[in-house]
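Technical appendix A lists one of the benchmark inputs used to test multi-chain prediction within the project. The record comprises two sequence entries:
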Amino acid sequence: MQQRLDRWIERSSRGLAARTSRRGFLGSFGQALTGVALLPLLPVDRSSRAEAAEPAATAAGPAGQAAKPAAKASTGDPNSCDYWKYCAIDGYLCACCGGSSSSCPPGTQPSPITWIGTCHNPVDGRDYIVSYNDCCGKASCGACQCVRNEGEKPMYRLSLNNDVNWCMANENPNYHCSVSVLLGVAEK
Amino acid sequence: MSRAGSARALRRRAAWSALLLAAAGVAGLAGMSRTAGAAGAPPLPAEHLEVAKLPPWSPHWAYLYDNSFANETDSRLYLYDGDAHRMLGQYEIGYYPAMAISPDHKTTAVATTYWSRGGHGTRTDVIEYEDNATLTVRGELVLPPKRAQTTAITNFGLSYSSDQRFLYLANLSPAASLSIIDVARNAIVGDIDTDGCVLVMPSGKRRVSALCENGRLLTITHDDAGAETARSVSQPFFSVDRDPIFVQSAPTPTGVVHVSFLGDVYAIDLSGAEPRFAPPWPTVTPQERGHWRPGGQQVVAYHARSGRLYLPMHRGGEGSHKDGATEIWVFDANTHKRLARWPVNAAKYGGVIAVLATQDERPLLFAATERSALFVIDAMSGRLQHVEARLGQTLWSMMNP
């Protein structure tokens, strides 16, 4: 029953993500709450992951030093702030902290609520809806600080804001790092 | 341990202490006699360890907020003297704090979060009342665990009513609400749903406004018991989609002044029963629009006596609204004329991400950079008076104490 429910939620959420643009996506706060509540239930479709064919990790940036995206977006290194999926991350990359671009490090808990971005994949030329979950329960990872804000809005537009602590609803709201989880292709 | 055993242990410790002091004294005297003899000068007097007292308040002081981004559970607030160019002291302010200085300047209220075991264990949200004369905590109020936690520090995560009777606290769980705290009773007396609107911008004694996601301003009036008595919602006064305003603003004598991502200035008069919105005006020419932008963490400073506005500006496009500035632009807020462009050495110290003006007749402009350097600038002439190459870890915001 739980699996059927999860599959139904996955189809519904991916359909919703695919049918909506960034500006229209979860536009109101009420819709955002409904939408984001579904996100952590999504089973991950690993076959669609761009990083499956990516090279191994590269050196992490020093703590406290903001990494700026290079002029040309990186297509393949999830340990680099340039990586295309990170277009609106403001925080530490979980890939440098024991997790990956879409998994939390051991011993942390993913945030059940999140902010949403649309990032362009230069490899296949598609725009993807991305869920930026925080990983919570330990103090700041401190490695690979990444500040990118494409489409980011101030906190009154909560579903597009990366300044608030998205660990806020966790049992332990201590922010550790951020991931970028693909939800689906954004249809134009 | 028995009382007799405890007394023996104390005697032993006292004996060891005396021995160590004597040894240190002999060594010290021996050392001094060599140098004093060589110079022929009298020996230095003995020193007495004591705790420094704060000098009298100066308008050239600033509170510097250090988020401590690599270890955010340990945020700090440094008290810095812009004339003596030195740190005077420090508050420890926990995790994603919100801060408010009381109208009489005697207290800094800090709403923050601690855990019982460093970064885990039992969570406690609390308002701590810091005594600005001694830099010590002199009281607290434990809060329900729902206050807004954000890296975007504004003057309005926590704020005082003008008569100092109430504190307003912004909550986000992620449901948005505001708590009203009776300061004298040290108790939460009101908890008001803000319909998704955020921040607590006080005006007058019993009124508080919040920014809404559709570009409107929600204003709530309450009574002395903390109960809501009226609420109104303004017409949209900016476009969230086309050109959102930063939540970080600067206080003015009648309200606040915001800037937008593209550099328009939005002054809001909160002195009346209903907010009044001045027509927005641009800080960039049509040719510069979209290419030069304000950016950072504290993106506008205002000096009330001269009506000068200060904006950290950078060259950048969409998504660059947190980038550091290579120049500080100065405007007359009355005539809307650009008075100056002050380049900063961003290559050496990092771009400017926060600006604060002191409010006296000979104002200073403090400018903090993305590498946690601090510039002290004559706010009238632009002359760079001092640079702290590195102060703390991540200076993201500043306040007039």
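Strands of chain A lie at 90-92, 109-110, 115-120, 127-132, 134-136, 145-147, 175-178, 181-185. Confidence is low (pLDDT under 50) at residues 1-74 of chain A. Comparable benchmark entries are summarised in Table A2.
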